[in-house]
Amino acid sequence: MTGHNWFDQGGGAYARYRPDYPETLADFLTETAPDTALALDVGCGNGQFTRLLGDRFDAVVGSDLSADQIAHAAPHPHVRYVVGAAERLDAEAKSANLITAAQAAHWFDLPAFYAEARRVAAPGAVLALISYGVAVLEPRLSARFLSFYTDEIGPYWPSERKLVDTGYAGIDFPFTELPRPDLDIVREWSADAFLGYVSTWSAVRRAIEAGQGDMLDSFSRDLLELWGDPARTRRVSWPIAMRLGRIE
Description:
disordered N terminus
């Protein structure tokens, strides 16, 4: 991992508030892989996507550079979690049928990661770099949220965030690309759940470190006023983007 590891603390909040991935995404990748013997989930965080693969593969290795994230990963009988870098995968040569990185590849040294992916890939293995974009809220909340995301918190995003916003469209991906379905993450969340999610952003941490707590408080007040009853659930969705390729 290059640069600052923004998620080296706070694994509990990350596990509680980050949206998990749809079963349909795991189903699609399982069907695309040549076998279900072994999957690697790289930059796995607290294992949200790893556990879905564990339901479908005989064995899964979830790896992350953050020991705090791994400490908050829920156990699964088919999953082994390890603290380790994306550029040095914990797998034997030609062993992995599927390699995934969910909301993580923008932190990697990609040439080194790709070299490792080629080393561990079984014949016909699939590599999936998955990301989800900016949250989509109901119209009554959208304008205030987008103003916060773009204009207020925007300057505090690490430069890697631009790769996420474009769905990894601009990164080098030297593999034969495969078609992928249009998928979304959809949740019905309370105001507390949504603001908890915002609190896990790397940009929020940077804003706090820069003494911009008042800006965050102002956004929270405005959002709660627009939300109404904070216990009321409202629809929040994120478009899933994916670079999907066959490793040859």
